[in-house]
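Could you show me just one protein sequence together with its fold in token form as a worked example?
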Amino acid sequence: MSAFSLDPSILEIILGAKSTIDLPKLSVHSREDAIQFIFTYGYDISDYKDSKILWKTHRMAVEILEEEILDVGEELPAKVRNKEELEDITDLLILASYADGSQMQKYACAVLTVMHMIIHLENDLFTSFTDDIQYQILRPIQEHIVMGEKNTSFLGNNHEIELIDFSIKPFKQTKSGVIKLLARDKTVAMTLLDRVGMRFITKSVYDIFRVIKYLVDHHLISFPQTIVGQSKNLICPVDVFIEAQESFIEGASEQENFAKFNEVLSKKIKDWSDKGNELETKNEFTSKDFKFIKFISRRFLKIDRGPDKEPLKFFYPFEVQILDNQTFMENENSEASHKSYKERQRRVARHRLLGF
């Protein structure tokens, strides 16, 4: 019986112990082997269109690496970044298979890894049906956002809840998706759950919970479709909020009750925090000073495919983020800024790709 020769790292990937992203090198040592590797992956390099897609993806990977991940002034070697130097895309796989662990080999692996991520990010349901997905998820909620006088906005056609702001989450570009995938070792393209999302900024903490109640009561979200393990409440523990509601005085005006409630809630949150309690972030890149409430829900979508064809049906996730204005301002003015968050992600992504 011959010795077992399959690379142990490949076994670990197939059996779930390791991610493809963390493979230190390939085992492709000839052009013929590389052609077959690429064909099994999904592309035929003898086909003009497939070849064109791969070179376009290579160019995007180089741009993302040099603009978003590498340190200032750092460049990829010409041998892996320039099409003219490579001559054939298979050369990149052969370079990534060198056993010497050189920087050239590491950079070749880095380019291939980013190409792998781009291909998956740009070949999912969202890319194929962007407009339909956004319309069917966002439109029902947008129809309940009403503009008032002097640029004020409200949730509810009868101005039920005044908002400081309502915004649709900007479409996550491929480059930011790549960095997010690299920065989190358990995340794959299929589990990027926040490609569609919205943010409510309310006048008070109390209004955060009123927004959630409104979304449920008006059937704008289906609470059974909330994805378990993806919710974050970094502003106010639910039990503290429930306890604070006991401060409501029957017969008092709404304004009086609101003022009393906010006073009691602020004190209860402070008392809870002073006891050493802390809301868990579960995100190594989020500063403990960055606070918000968010959850991921799903909507069942139907995509029209034309006459005489059954519509394509699937669930698609979306993120709802809610925070009060005071918390929003503290987030903006603290070390917890988006820029700091992104830089922490970039450093982890760079180290994961290159190991140095």
